[in-house]
Amino acid sequence: MQAYVSLWSADLLDLGAAVDRLAEVADGFHLDVFDGHAVPDLLFGPDVVAALRDRTDGLLDVHLMVARPDDWIDRFADAGADLITVHTSACPDIRTTLRTIRSRGVRAGLGLETHEPTSHAVAHFGDADRVLVMGTVVGVKGCDQDPATPARVEELVAARAEGGAAGSAPQVVVDGGIRTHTVPALARAGADGVVPGSLVFGAGDPVAAVRWLHALPAGPGDAAGDTEYSPSEGDVLPRG
User: Is 26 within a domain?
Assistant: First the structure.
């Protein structure tokens, strides 16, 4: 399972050190962008992405939770984002927005919120490089994961398989409520990756935590998907 590590849970005064420490193991660095309107907080802007771009060759995964994402696509693309995820609720025409992101040479992600049916994401498979399945309400830390999340992942993975052409099918990645006790079920459901925050940065050994995620087998019937966190029992703090 891939790990797109959320920098929201890192030491915000030392993001460079967090990126340096995980550069060899993280599949990407996830940056939540809040504008105080779509969600009641402010977090990460294009200048932070540009600074990180100068620091790392790793994938920079920008998640726009803003009121007008179309106004920000060029700014974040210019700053060096490799992937930009948007939500339908904020886009007058989600298909056009996804295609605009791709036109900038950036991978396009579609955020699927907890109240949205999986069929909505399936309808946009052709324009999305990733479906980001939200396991919690957007913009809120420390919430329990929606129990329906693994089943939603299964539905998306099955729909992707039915569509054929796996090379053009979107990744299915889960964001929100990523804990040692929730990740095995997501792996069994077939998720390609997760967005871990405190699971990594709350661990005594963040590198070992990412490697544990990588070792989880994906797909139904994998008993190893029940493997407990192994680097050091009790390392991971249940927050974020």
Answer: yes
Q: Which amino acid is at 73?
A: I
Parent domain of 135: 2-226
- Residue 123's CB: how many other CB atoms inside 10 A? 15
Residue 155 lies in a domain: yes
Amino acid at 39: V
3-class SS of residue 125: helix
134 in a structural domain: yes
Distance from C-alpha of 68 to C-alpha of 180, rounded to nearest angstrom: 34
For the annotated catalytic residues, the residue numbers are: 32, 175
Instruction: Tell me which residue has tokens 């030491």.
Output: 11
pLDDT tens digits, 192-234 = 999 999 999 999 999 999 999 999 987 765 444 445 555 444 4
Sign of the four-CA dihedral 239, 34, 132, 153: positive
Tokens linked to 25: 């193991």
**pTM, two decimal places:** 0.90
Backbone φ, ψ for residue 190 (5° rounding) = 105, 10
Total domains in the chain come to: 1
First-to-final CA distance of the chain = 20
CA angle 128-129-131, nearest 5°? Answer: 70
- Distance between CA atoms of residues 52 and 137, nearest Å: 27
Q: What is the CATH number of the domain that holds 21?
A: 3.20.20.70
Asked if residue 7 is part of any domain, the answer here is yes
Q: Is 204 helix (H, G, I), strand (E, B) or coil?
A: coil
